[in-house]
Design goal:
Elements (H helix, E strand, L loop, with lengths): L3 E8 L4 E9 L2 E5 L3 E10 L2 E10 L13 E11 L2 E8 L2 E12 L3
Antiparallel strand pairs: 1-2, 1-8, 2-3, 3-4, 4-5, 5-6, 6-7, 7-8
InterPro entries: GrlR_sf (IPR043019)
Length: 107
């Protein structure tokens, strides 16, 4: 996956939101109005795996997983057209399905 700034959209059955993700080699940094995330990315062939630690920075906002302030998110995805499409689960809400799309920001 190319290094750069990505615009993200993500959702669970509970909520949806958007944010930004910055990829620098195999490191991932990002955030939205209530949470920030850091982690790593591994590309193997067409598959992309991402592991993030997600932490709340604004107590007035909940994550798309509900009232979880600090958790790990594991995602698997691949490129589809101009976007990357991911699915995954959070360690503190494993029964809730998470979907995300990332598109490289035009700078």
């Amino acid at each position: 996956m190319q290094s750069g700034l990505y615009v993200s959209r993500f959702r669970t059955p509970l909520d949806d939101a958007g944010g930004v993700i910055y990829i620098d080699g195999n490191r991932v940094y990002g955030g939205d109005t209530g949470m920030y995330y850091v982690g790593e990315i591994i590309s193997e062939g067409e598959e992309v795996r991402v592991t993030l630690r997600v932490r709340q920075h604004d107590d007035s906002r909940q994550s798309v997983f509900g009232d979880h302030r600090d958790f790990r998110l594991s995602l698997t995805g691949r490129k589809r057209g101009a976007e990357y499409v991911f699915e995954g689960r959070a360690d503190k809400a494993p029964s809730i399905r998470f979907e995300a799309t990332l598109r490289l920001a035009p700078l």
